[in-house]
Amino acid sequence: MSKLVTELHIIGENGNMFDTDMEYIIPLYQRAYAWEDKQLTQLIEDINDVAEDSNYYIGSLIVSKQFGRYEVVDGQQRLTSLYLLLNCLGIKTKPTLTFACREKSNYTLRNIEELLLENRSKIDMDRIEPGIQRGIRILSHELTKNHFDRESFMEKLAKIIVYRIEVPENTDLNRYYEIMNTRGEQLEQHDILKATLMSYLSDDSEKGLFAKIWDACSDMTGYVQMHFISKNNAVREAIFGSEWNSMPPNSWQKYKKAISGTTQETTGHKICDLIEKNFKVEDDEGYVDGDVRVRFESVIEFPYFLLHTLKVYVSLYGVTHEIATSKIVDELLDDKKLLDAFNRVVSCGITDTGRIADSKEDFARGFIICLLRTRYLFDKYIIKREYANDSADGEWSLKSLYVSGQQSKKKAYYGNSEFTRPGEWTRTNDWRTKTNDWRTKTNDWRTKTNIMMQSALRVSYTSPKVMHWITKLLIWLSEADCKNIKNDAITKFDKVAENIAIDAVRENFFQVCSNGVYAMGVNTPHIVFNYLDYLLWNDDRNGKKKKYSDFVFEFRNSVEHWYPQNPSEGTFEQWKDGVDQFGNLCIIQRNVNSKFSNMSPEAKKSTFKDMIVKGSIKLRIMSELTEKNGDKPASLYWKERAYKAHEEEMLGHLKKACNIE
User: pTM to 2 decimals?
Assistant: First the structure.
């Protein structure tokens, strides 16, 4: 690790991070302390989430050494909060945190103990800074709740790490702070990881090569090919071929030949670049359908992509932990444990050729190649959001980058990713375009199927920490030198994704519900509803009616009862036995009017018809079935009979797909 980067433990055997001879000073150009409930309770939760077997990175502290003290350039809110937290826990700290020209703030920091004891007679309340006092009150409240386990919390706090990063000498701090504050740019874990992996390489030219590939991959906007910029597109074509759409090579020497010695610009931003007045981030855009300009948005950010790629690398190279009973990678994709995850692989990983720790240089080379190849596959085969022209309404997309024009006039455009067999027609129009060419229709059909299946997974698992479906798909695409994208297997890519959904529905629904009772209520996993909608959409597409051709997967993240648990003001009968049955459940957007939950089925049908007609397919069917029967009102008939028939039909679809008898 660089000499400018220091690993600080919040507390340790030798004291705490404020037990130092160096003073931290918050300069006047920074705002006053401003963290409130949301940020402080999240800090407590982050600490409580720490696993027992690993350290936990909680952020970086950017400082500049000035006249024998650290001037805090970035991270002062977290630094001050940690100082308050230690004091609220009764841990003595040296008075090493001060605010420049803010006497009230300094007075408050020096009198935290008296504020906690409410010894108002010993302090001048007019000299107390309200923001810091509020922070003390919030932390004290959180630490004194009945369920708070102090002993466990202290053990986890001892595993918390902050990285103190010193900016280079002669940096214009005012300009640096302005850039950091307005753009949100700061050194994060992945910056430190980049420096660490580069340090494994002894040759400066190889370090430069590593950095160029890393920088291209770290920009998650657009397609990675467009982040290799050189004269006459020489580098891009050397790596991705003349069509800019070939799999990057698996040879370090080929990258050295392709990139080394060429003039290339990358998308990585150095501090010296950021503080330039003319600094500008260019948009990565292309075209589809002639003049329609598009931009793309990734479903995950770069730190998470690194964790997915690490798992791909572990799978490809058969990396295991040197201690047979220990896991080499965590199941959860936690960006705060990024450095810890890589350190474990490097320090404890073994392959058929030996310990990774004994060949760190080979690991750095192998990982950066894996990163680029995985990013290429990610861009081409994992869904993203596509935005046309200046529209703010995106749609799910599975496109590849192609090129038109000749030589220096080549220009990128985007078309459907190919899910064709060798020898099938590969150039396709957009799946929305009407055509009678069966060759085009075949791939468009597969593209649409893949989009629907992946978007069902995406909206089911909204946290990037649990998007394991992405890892599984990337491993399948990468295995055996990407053999699956070179043969008929790619035509079944949607089935690979569907099997992920099937496994989740079996494990978290059918294996949980026993004795034929499917009554998980609001705890029913979202994947059950979304996979069911996928099945209903697919059956409809293969039929004649095409009732659901307009259906798209959206973030419907609230499971609701169609017949309510608690009827509005007792206007109709409460349903005690069966209200939680799967047949009575639907999934809707959380921002739908809160009155939805207490309305009768017929009232929901009439009041929310605009939402229902664009909603879940299961919800649409439930609404259609909500009709009176003879002299029985619709709600009563739904509760007594209709819901059960609906449930049996819906479960029938799921059981057939999941091979459940």
Answer: 0.74
